[in-house]
């Protein structure tokens, strides 16, 4: 259940259509290739993918939390 690629390849109308993906380039838990393949596979399905790698950051890096909140407002149509 750790590899989402199998599930992304299946037809699933209830799957999320918007993705916010962040990782650090010094991530020791997940290969950068995996993150790239995940983002590209989702884009190929027509999903809206916002993916970014933080230079010299580790696993679970989130260096722009304010931007993620703005992104959520954009994809949900909520404006303050």
Could you name the key traits of this structure?
flat; 2 strands; two-stranded parallel sheet; single chain; alpha+beta; about 80 residues
| Cα-atom radius of gyration | 14 Å
β content, as a range?
A: 15-25%
Overall geometric form? flat
- Count of DSSP strands: 2
Question: How are the strands ordered across the major sheet?
Answer: 1-2
Distance between the termini: 38 Å
**Largest β sheet strand count, sense and barrel closure:** 2 strands, parallel
How many helical elements?
Answer: 3
Q: Give unreliable regions as ranges.
A: none
Question: What order do the helices and strands follow?
Answer: HEHEH
Give the averaged pLDDT, no decimals: 88
Q: Give the fraction of residues assigned to helices.
A: 25-40%
Q: Class by helix and strand content? A: alpha+beta
Write the layout of secondary structure elements.
Blueprint: H1 5-8, E1 18-24, H2 32-44, E2 48-54, H3 65-76
Parallel strand pairs: 1-2
Explain what this protein looks like in three dimensions.
There is one protein chain. The chain is α+β, with helices and mostly antiparallel strands and 80 residues long. It contains three helices and two strands. A two-stranded parallel ribbon has the order 1-2. Helix 2 (32-44) links the parallel strand 1 (18-24) and strand 2 (48-54). The longest helix has 13 residues, at 32-44. The radius of gyration is 14 Å and the shape is flat.
What can be said about this structure in brief?
The chain is of the alpha+beta class and 80 residues long. The protein is built from three helices and two strands; from the N terminus they run αβαβα. It is flat.
